[in-house]
Amino acid sequence: MKRKINKQEPIPDPEHLTEEERVAGERAKLLFKTLRNETFSPDEKDALWNQVGETISQRKQRSFNTFWIAAAASVTLLLLAGVGYLVFYEDSARVMQNVAANSKVSADETQLILADKRSVSLRKENSSVVYKENGALIQVDSSSTIGQQVAGDQQFNTLIVPYGKRSVLTLSDGTRIWLNSGSKLVYPSHFNKGQREVYLEGQAYFSVTHAADAPFYVHTKDMEVKVLGTEFDVSAYDDDPYTATVLTKGSVELTTQRQALFGSKKTKITPGTRAVFDQGRATLQTQQVDVREYVSWKDGSLWLNTAPLAEILRKVARYYRVEIELKQPKLAGVTFDGSLYLQEDVRDVLKGLSVTTGLNYKQQPNERRYVLEESTIKP
Amino acid sequence: MTHSNPDHDTWLRFISGDSDAFSDLYDQYADVLYAFGMRYSTDRDLLKDCIHDLFIDLHGYRKNLARDAIVKFYLLKSLRRKLHLAHRKSSMLRFDRWDTEDSLAINTFSFSIEEELILSEKELETLQHLAAEINLLPDRQREILYLRYHQDLDYDEIAAIMQISVPTCRTFVYRALKQLRGKLEFGAILLIMCC
Predict the structure, then answer these.
(1) Mind telling me how many Å the CA of B105 is from chain A's nearest CA?
(2) Has this prediction a pTM greater than 0.90?
(3) How close, in Å, is residue B183 to chain A by CA atoms?
(4) Residue A379: pLDDT band by 50, 70, 90 thresholds?
């Protein structure tokens, strides 16, 4: 046995070891072969392996998370900045929108509502309002002058035009705005430096005084028009499923879908273009048009360029907020050229139309409803 | 080196990102590491935590691991370091016992001589005596004997594991053997006297 042990491994530093020490080493080696080890039970071993796997996947998850947390944090910051921007930027637009929503359209008189709730009635069919002295003086219908406080916080004035009437507004910066029938315009009593913003419900034609350092914004429910100084028409009637801009001169930038934080879309249009934002489809479409057709109303007439009768009647109905029924649908496609003078009373307009078309018009017992039909007596 | 060695192939596959190799590595070494760790600690959970952490580190740093590492030695060394740190941490938290001794002490050994070896009665007696003497040796000498004779590590490896120089390591072995020889003689004398 001993001999067998002796043959085994070289003993450390053999030259310094005595025979006894060598033997002791051999014996120790033998002893250590018998050392009883603690055993790792297979269950424990498996459990620990599972733990290792779990930790690794968690770490992966964590580093993944760290990335996404960082990403989310930056996105959140951007969002906050965006929201802050929107809140700050849209602030006056929203305030004006609220002002518009809170002011009632009087049935038959054009009204100017001042910031201090004073209400001024404008009796003329085609009234005018001119702001002077940086908004402190308002000249109404070139006859009376109203003073208002323009210092302090930004306050808003509202011009409300009932159906069948129009109004021309000249703001303190020289910008002229023709408000079409059934429209509301909210605007600051005076413009702060570098800030020109108005809110429109209905239709208006804008001739904006150029100011490179103060873009002019027209806010509507679905579209925002930004200009430096041009002429254009905006139609944003509440009861229309669309908002449209027609550009006469210069260039404007349209922003649609503002409410969609990242979906906000900017479009630039050139003169002669009509851009229509469809509410239902949330799309903006542009087409080249004859501008006169869309802006002639400001001069008190409808410009007709091979306009089908149905469309003419629709415009007239819109302008006077009446219903016009064409008895014989086959006539809907008959087209007319020229211009239709927009008189104060829709009946005068219908009379004129009757003469031109050889049709008769009848007012129904419900006085907002008119029927146009072929005359029984042929001319 | 031992590149043809299947264990080393596992190691190389593991480094190159083979997840099966990682599992093989665990299967191969978990028991060895557990048995080794239990020489130093009696706290199974602490040891399992250390083994767990060791494999997590291996997995995490596998791209930076030495391809020519001697796997078993590397793993034992790493585990001992982890145990050492864990112990130091836990002893720092134990205020009832001011342990200025920073080293990780190896537990006493329990040899199963009778079961493992077929020996003459006298030889058995001698070995039993030697076993008792080994357990009386200073911790570090016992640890060296363990690493040398049980784990079959060479002096370079033992020195690296125990964080001592190779000559110191040799000296420790020498002293241990010298002492054992002396004790054996003494024991022999006792035996003679008894007989």
Answers:
(1) 17
(2) no
(3) 10
(4) very low
Query: What ipTM is given for this predicted complex?
Result: 0.82
DSSP state letters, A207-258: EPPP-TTS-EEEE-SSEEEEESS-EEEEEE-TTSSEEEEEE-SS-EEEEE-T
**Domain A300-374: CATH architecture, name and number where available:** 3-Layer(bab) Sandwich (3.55)
**Nearest residue to B52 (alpha-carbon basis) of A147, A269, A156, A49:** A49
Interface probe with B: pick from A4, A9, A21, most Cβ of B within 10 Å: A21
Q: What is the pLDDT of residues B136-176, one digit of tens each?
A: 888 888 899 999 999 989 999 999 998 889 888 888 888 88
DSSP assignment of B76-106 equals HHHHHHHHHHHHHHHHHH--SS-----SPPP
> Tokens representing A189?
């009593």
Q: How many CB atoms lie within 10 A of CB A264?
A: 14
**Contact across the interface for B56 and A38, Cβ inside 8 Å:** no
Residue in A153, A152, A185 with CA at minimum distance from that of residue A166: A185
Q: Dump pLDDT digits (tens) for A167-200.
A: 999 998 889 999 988 899 999 888 877 788 999 9
**Which among A38, A54, A60 is the top mutation candidate for probing chain B, defined by the most B β-carbons within 10 Å of its own β-carbon?**
A38
CB-based contact A27 B130, cutoff 8 Å: yes
**pLDDT, tens only, A341-361:** 887 788 888 888 888 878 888
Q: Does domain B6-93 have CATH number 1.10.1740.10?
A: yes
The domains of chain B are located at: 6-93, 113-194
How far is B19 from chain A, CA to nearest CA, in Å?
Answer: 11
The hierarchical CATH code for the domain B113-194 is 1.10.10.10
Q: Which positions in chain B touch A24 (Cβ < 8 Å)?
A: 130, 177, 180-181, 184
Contact A13 B48 (CB under 8 A): no
DSSP labels, A20-70: HHHHHHHHHHHHHHTBPPPP--HHHHHHHHHHHHHHHHHHHHHHHHHHHHH
